[in-house]
Amino acid sequence: MKKLVYSSLILLGITISGQSKEDSIQFNKISTEILNNGKGYEELRDLTKNIGKRLSGSEAYEKSVQWAAKQLREAGADKVWLQEVIIPVWERGKESLQIKTNNGQSKTLKMLSLGNSEGTGGKDVSGEIIMVKSLEEYDRLPAEQVKGKIVFFNHPFDQSYAQTFIAYREGGAYRRTAASLTAKKGGKYAIIRSLSSAFDDVPHTGVMKYEDNIAKVPAVCIGNTTADDLEKLLKTQKVIATLNSNCGMRGEKLSHSVIGEITGKKDKSVIVVGGHLDSWDVGEGAHDDGSGIVQSIEVLRTFKKLGIQNNHTIRAVCFANEENGTKGGKQYGKTAKDTNEKHLFAIESDAGGFSPRGISLEMNEQNRKQIQSWVNLFLPYGVYNFDGKYSGSDIAPLHEMGVPTAELVPDPQRYFDIHHTAEDTFEKVNRRELLLGSTVMTQLIYMIDKNW
Q1: In the chain, what are the domain boundaries?
Q2: Residue 38: which of 333, 352, 294 has the closest Cα?
């Protein structure tokens, strides 16, 4: 009987360990409201199916700006506005990659140009492929072995990490630097193995960067099985690759982040919850980051629906241009600094709409310990990991200003199967998992607002 009573208390969110019964009850009210009446899943369906992929600078992105403003108003925001942002415009265009071996075999490979890469100007560019497995191996290659060649950076996603974001961060160096490294030694363009945890043939795009005063050669990605097949070919054959691509930067344009808030009853200090509204130009941007957008809007809706009287202003920010420039986050931080607007806290959701498992805390030790002391309140909702010390790129400018920042940590095991691919669609998102993320973010904002 005692076990039954204790289990019932846990299910109700009534914890012990020094946390108030009032907080536990409020956590339960938040969870009950969102899991039964949350609108985030249907909003995500609308965003992904009726607008879809929304790369910054595209017509679809501009439609998503108006969509987000409408959703924030309907959620009950006291004030909704658009924040001007000058963003870079990159377009993909038509592209193809073909290979031919010295015994006459030819094949068209599935590929994607990396974001912000320059293309070939619609012309065929051919050369022999050379393969390296690591940056260290490439560094040892003399320039004469690279000149006029195509460099295949065949670095696999490290499957040994339980935390997949560690493997992603390690592999990110290849995506960011492959083009400039190739150009420095006279190579024609770079091919990288996608940053993917899946054993499939889906290419994963993502942003790359050019170094100043270095030739801007193209960079493309291929999926894991294509990379494996190419590796096998290169062991026995000379392989010529031909790239034809039309991608490139198309200047800059005025765009907007979208912001909505519920005014604080005690003061105007700001608590930010946000995600990024843009996505890559493949897939539907459901997990990355439509999920974070609808979860952030759900926070405002839930405060309004439950009549929670927030002490501080709670602001949902739908950031522009996270994927290929982070201009939205930078502009938000600059505006906050220029206006001397006080921010108490900021959290971002940009790791997918999977089941929440933790909250990463990038802040001083005193604030970390206070939030970690609330762990028993979150345990009934499957959230236990408060050890991380990182937060999202869009709120990095706030962190640099001394604002405590955080990031929702969903279960990471499936995210890099679909990240930055055509597979990132609405169908890959589970309703309950998505709404649990909204629940945990709302619960955390409730505690921050009450205690800070």
Answers
A1: 14-90+251-451, 93-246
A2: 294
Cα first-last separation, the chain: 39
pTM of this structure:
0.94
Beta strand 150-153 pairing with 189-193: parallel
| Helices 21-37 and 291-305, packing angle to 10 deg | 120
53-78 burial: b if 16+ Cβ within 10 Å, else e: bbbbbbebbbebbebbbebbeebebe
Give every residue of the chain whose pLDDT is below 70, as ranges.
Answer: 1-19
- pLDDT (0 to 100) of residue 19: 62
Over residues 218-271, the pLDDT tens digits come to 999 999 999 999 999 999 999 999 999 999 999 999 999 999 999 999 999 999
Within 10 Å of residue 450's Cβ, how many Cβ atoms?
Answer: 15
Assign domain 93-246 to a CATH class: alpha beta
Phi, psi of 392 (to 5 degrees): -70, 160
CATH 3.40.50.10320 fits 14-90+251-451, yes or no: no
Whole-angstrom CA distances from 130 to 190, 193, 279, 429 are 10, 13, 32, 39
| Residues 287, 415 contacting (CB under 8 angstroms) | yes
